[in-house]
Amino acid sequence: MSKQEQNKKRTGLGRGLGALLEDSENLQSSASQSGSLMGGLDGVNLMEEIPLAYIETNPYQPREYFEQAALEDLAESIRVHGIIQPITVRKTGARSYQLISGERRLQASKLADLSRIPAYVRTADDQQMIEMALIENIQRENLNAIEIALSYKRLMEECQLKQEDLGARVGKNRSTVTNYMRLLKLPVHIQLAIRENKISMGHARCLISLENPTLQQQLFSKTIAEEWSVRKLEDAVRQSAAGKVDANPQVSKAVNAEELRSWQRQLTDHFKLPVSLKMDDSGKGEVKLLIKSAADLKRLLESIQS
């Protein structure tokens, strides 16, 4: 890709966002040419070493979960190699800064027991903070599909963007943005399955095409229980459209995991013995009681007879 094409592509991210993504290469180039860390560029001061205690996390951070093992790995890398890519912050006071991007690097640096961290300091208002934090995460942090959808939703609501404008900001076409936004119409438990990587974006798109909530739940349960591929789920959706799947069963015998756990606790309390309870979507299952002695068996018989 030519330099002109790269510049053209970045322009679609908006003025402040393009500048953010160019911070690293532009600032490093400037520092190399000048041989110092003096001066500034487009509202950005060159790199500074800032005490970690002076930096507060970004209140607009869209990512809700950072895998602890991955943070530990990054912390170990930082102990060995140091911070290769500085974080980006804005100054909010004489001894206070607010993180714009680099949440994982900041958290891992704390785990690595660093006292200071290299950072680019730039000027940004609240709206720019929201945009930069959301888009930096969307493009660089491998958010799951629901986190991306929620980030899109926040950009539209908090930055007053239309879908076509949002697409230009994040470098996606409107249909892609729409597909992500539609995920937020799924039931909460299906959204949770996407967050936990139990089903993929492809599975979710199949499920959201189903207007019948009972059928949607049936196929979702089978996808999880039988580990269906996207192709198999697509086939099941097509069969349902052709009337080959019962979309309105008379009685649904499936129970959710919380109900199952509740019944298991009740049985354990009643028999005063460890109980294992399993049940499939048809309502069939088994109950196992763990007996360690004759006294346990006697107590069980007494419970049944009482």
From TrEMBL:
The protein's matches in Pfam families, at most eight in alphabetical order, are given as: HTH_ParB, ParB_N
Q: Where is the ParB-like N-terminal domain?
A: 48-138
Report if keyword Cell cycle is assigned.
no
Which keywords describe this protein according to UniProt?
Answer: Chromosome partition
Q: Which CDD domains match?
A: SPO0J_N
Question: Which superkingdom is the protein from?
Answer: Bacteria
Q: Where is the signal peptide?
A: none
Hey, which family's this protein in? Belongs to the ParB family.
> Which protein, by its recorded name, is this?
ParB/RepB/Spo0J family partition protein
- Which organism does this sequence originate in? Aquirufa avitistagni
